[in-house]
Amino acid sequence: MNIYKYIDYNFGSRYILDINRVHSNIFSVNIINVFVGFIKLVLVVSFISIFCTESWANALDKEFNNPTQKKIPSKIKEPEESLVNSNEIQVREKDGVLQSSEFEVIDLYQKSNVKEKIDYSHCASYYKQASLNLGNGIYAIKLKDGSIVGYSPTRPKSNSIIKYDPFVGLFLANGKIDSKYTYELSDIDDYATSRELASTGINGAKPGRFQTYQTGFLKYAQFSIPTQKNGVISNICYKIYGLGVGGNGFIEKLYIDRFLSQDKPYYGDIGARFEIIDEEHATFMVQFSDPFFPNNPFKRGDVIISINDIAPKDWAEFELLVADLPFNEMASVKIRRGEEVKNLSVKVGRRYGGMLLADSFLERFDFDISNDFIVQRVPKSGPFSKLKRGDRILFINDIDMRYFKVKNRKERNSLLIELFTKIQGNQVDFLEQKNLEKHKQESIGVKSRDIIEQFQSKGSLQDNKSGFYRKLSENIQDFEAKNDEETTKMQKHLNNNNNKNMLNDNLHSFGGDGVLREHGTFSMHTIYDIYGSDIQEVKKKKRERIKEYEELVEYGGVMTFLIDRQGFQFRVTLE
Question: Of all residues in the chain, what percent carry a pLDDT higher than 70?
Fold first, then answer.
């Protein structure tokens, strides 16, 4: 007799007994064949019994009459009390298995005859009644709270969309589903990880098994068979564990709940993009750093120790921690930079690019350029508002953009984010060096003033303004000024060499032949900015402007574009 399991899409799992085999044993057996078979069986058993009995009796008689064999009286074994009273056992069903009240598995039939058969056709029918067709092959499902949610990597062209998250592709729709059927969204539990589930969608339902949890916004949970976009992963028809995205992936409840809880999609930003350098030890490093992010303290290579005294245990927790940082609040970030541990403070901003969106650090400005670096769209305000549509970008700082040949927007964004990260690193180095020099000069100034005051006080005691101590103090002041000048010149030379090397490092991969050649920047030094934001001539002398520009580029303190506008070349400094 077989046990079969089927699914009732309203009430869950039930079990039925297949009695066809019983009927066949009672009503379909040929009586004559049974009678003949029985006679044959009796004859064979009788023959074997006679033969075995005679042989066994002879052997026993021989052993008993053996004079060397020691005789041991036999004992009668008392019958053991039955350990199980069948009248007191209460059989019950639990998770598809029959169990007794003593938690002993009761196998009513041979194990080979016990089969599990799940009918998922009802789940496919349930999906059609609990989903909304938005057109163009896009569906959305209705949850128990009445929300109609779906997934699309691009915003669906439907008037029913009332909220869309371009970072992860989730959307909320408004529509009418003429059915009482809804889905109950659940966290992945023990049942989901140990039992067979169903991947269900508009194209039907198929059995499969859970594979891995979701480990990031785009690092989806995995199922053993392909999932349908906006299909569901379920154990019974109405209880689901996630929303299908295609491939073998699906989005878990945690990320769907985050989307539904927000009035508008929000992801916190601290001015950097990160990468995993040691997954086992949850070590994350700054990969790209945004020079347009206000007061950005990060540079490439910074290793994150903690954020607001929280050390994330994995990438999923790290992503959610940064994304959930409150807007405009200060975040405390502990990092390791080389061998030094630093405590940084950064004002939390809002993400404008990344995940499913392009990310070049320009998205916040509504500013766009083509693959050959010609301006396509200009914002009404901000640093890029000085440019015009059609301007061709020739240089960004001392990097010749005409050298780079990119094939598509993805390569263009990769080039820009790499270049901007280099510039941001120079800015961080510049600020650190500036603060170090300032501290050093303040320290030297304090010591010098103390010495001068001592000499001057001694000179005043002698009431001789042109005396020995007065002249000595004046000589010290002259020496200090000359020393500062020599130190500044030497520091400029070192910084110039270091910054050029840092700017050129790792940018060669975007070049046509794989090598970033040294280009002269005479055009940058000989073409002067005669245009301001109000198209007025700058009043400073050329020599002063050259010196200021060279110092700023040398220290990485600004970002400057050299552009060509209808044959005229001039420089625009971003402020």
Answer: 60
C-alpha to C-alpha distance for 153 and 135, rounded to whole angstroms:
15
Name the amino acid, one letter, at 85. Answer: N
Neighbours of 330 (CB within 10 A): 11
Residue partners of 126: CB distance under 8 A and separation at least 6: 9, 181, 200, 237, 238
CA distance between the termini of the chain: 83
Q: Which amino acid is at 68?
A: T
Token pair 């053996």 is at which residue? 66
Amino acid of residue 126 = Y
CA angle 427, 432, 435 (to 5 degrees): 125
DSSP state of 367: -
In DSSP terms, 171 is beta-bridged to 150, 164
> Tokens 């990160």, residue?
274
Query: What are the residues whose beta carbons fall under 8 Å from the beta carbon of 183, sequence distance 6 or more?
Result: 130, 141, 142, 143, 144, 232, 234, 238, 239, 240
Give the number of other Cβ atoms within 10 Å of residue 74's Cβ: 5
Amino acid at the residue 373: F
At residue 249, φ and ψ (nearest 5 deg) are -95, 155
193: left (phi over 0), alpha (psi -120 to 50) or beta: alpha
Q: If DSSP codes are grouped into helix, strand and coil, which group holds residue 401?
A: helix
Phi, psi for residue 35 in degrees, rounded to 5: -65, -45
Report the C-alpha gap between 157 and 135 in whole angstroms: 8
Residues 6+ apart with CB under 8 A from 29: none
Q: Would you state the structure tokens that stand for residue 177, as one six-digit string?
A: 């589903």
Q: Which of 1-5, 60-64, 570-574 has the largest mean confidence? A: 570-574
Report pLDDT digits (tens) over 418-460.
999 999 998 898 888 888 887 777 777 666 666 666 655 554 5
> Helix and strand tally (H, E) in the chain?
10, 30
